[in-house]
UniProtKB/TrEMBL annotation:
Tagged with keyword DNA repair: no
Subcellular location field: Cell membrane
PROSITE patterns: G_PROTEIN_RECEP_F1_2 (PS50262)
Recorded superkingdom: Eukaryota
Main location class: membrane
Origin species: Chelonoidis abingdonii
Protein's UniProt name: G-protein coupled receptors family 1 profile domain-containing protein
Keywords recorded for this protein, A-Z: Cell membrane, G-protein coupled receptor, Glycoprotein, Membrane, Receptor, Transducer, Transmembrane, Transmembrane helix
InterPro entries: GPCR_Rhodpsn (IPR000276), GPCR_Rhodpsn_7TM (IPR017452)
UniProt KW Membrane keyword: yes
A Pfam family: 7tm_1
Residue intervals passing through the bilayer: 12-32, 41-64, 76-99, 120-140, 175-196, 226-249, 261-280
Domain called G-protein coupled receptors family 1 profile: residue spans: 21-278
Membrane topology field: Multi-pass membrane protein
Lineage: Eukaryota, Metazoa, Chordata, Craniata, Vertebrata
Length: 311
């Protein structure tokens, strides 16, 4: 009980921190028009997804950990929502890194010609749609007419199930490992790693050929920042997927509740780390964020909203 109470308290504090920090990111971009670059707008979309984690996914996780008696589809929705936000974060990281890099390789002016805010918003909408389809796929036609359309691959529950609700009681280990981890997580992360490897190879070639230009320095700095976000995502989420893999490959192995809850906490910590890392790496964004915090949250009248210089 003490362990569970500590888990609930930490989750509650983390949820408050995630909501507050990501609201601050969105407010900063609303107040500072000069910061509304395409990349920063995509980061704001990532902050909105993290806001959903703090406001909904973390409370849902606490409810699932209680193993309450709930009807099947209520339990199913509580378990599916975190999959939606996680998948959107992965696809958005892929969009931030991949689309500009692919277009810029076509011709030097391709980025300015093709990357418009309307198209970017359309791409973000497509990411949301794909995330909803992937995360909520278990709710679409599941248990239709009393049988499993997926052959029992996704769930171990029945139509009239009214019992203890938990994340592992809704999803079979095969679904979490083969579909969510291998297909929907590792493949996009592998593509991201390939994109960054190609970028650093190109920048290294330019650096060896001639001194690095200011534009290339900014591009390299942004690439390092996004690579750091990718590394933190892997650090926060891989342990939880390792737990699922162990359960699938070694069903007789002993499980430890403390390790399971630590892995869940670590996965939620990613939503707090994203805005903090971006603010520390982007000096202009960090100064604007600090100014908004001091002026509008802490009510320090001496903090004046300056005009951050673009990097």
């Amino acid at each position: 009980m003490d362990l569970y109470l500590g888990f609930v308290i930490l989750e509650g504090l983390l949820a408050l921190a995630v909501v507050g920090t990501n609201l601050l990111v969105c407010a900063t971009l609303c107040l500072y028009r000069e910061l509304r670059s395409v990349t920063n707008c995509l980061v704001a979309c990532l902050a909105l997804a993290d806001l959903g984690v703090g406001a909904l996914a973390i409370p849902f996780s606490v409810v699932l950990s209680l193993e309450l008696t709930l009807c099947f589809y209520t339990c199913l929705f509580l378990a599916c929502f975190p999959l939606v936000t996680t998948q959107f974060s992965i696809l958005l990281l892929l969009l931030i890194a991949g689309v500009p890099r692919a277009l810029s390789r076509l011709s030097p002016c391709s980025y300015a010609v093709h990357v418009r805010k309307g198209r970017v918003l359309g791409a973000v909408g497509l990411c949301w749609l794909l995330s909803l389809l992937i995360g909520l796929s278990p709710m679409m036609g599941w248990n239709h007419l009393g049988h499993y359309p997926y052959g029992g691959f996704l769930s171990k529950l029945h139509d009239d199930h009214l019992g203890r609700c938990s994340f592992t009681s809704v999803f079979a280990p095969e679904y979490l490992v083969y579909f969510i981890f291998f297909a929907c997580t590792l493949l996009p992360l592998g593509a991201l790693l390939g994109i960054y490897t190609d970028l650093f190879r190109l920048v290294r070639g330019h650096f060896l050929a001639q001194p690095l230009q200011a534009a290339k320095r900014r591009e390299l700095h942004m690439a390092r920042t996004l690579l750091l976000l990718l590394g933190i995502f892997c650090l926060c989420w891989i342990p939880l997927h390792v737990v699922y893999c162990v359960r699938l490959l070694c069903p007789g192995c002993r499980s430890y509740a403390a390790l399971d809850r630590l892995a869940v906490l670590l996965s939620h910590l990613n939503s707090l780390a994203n805005p903090l890392v971006y603010a520390m790496r982007k000096k202009d964004f960090g100064r604007a964020l600090r100014s908004v915090l001091l002026r509008y949250v802490l009510c320090c009248s001496s903090a004046k909203p300056g005009r951050p210089q673009a990097r």
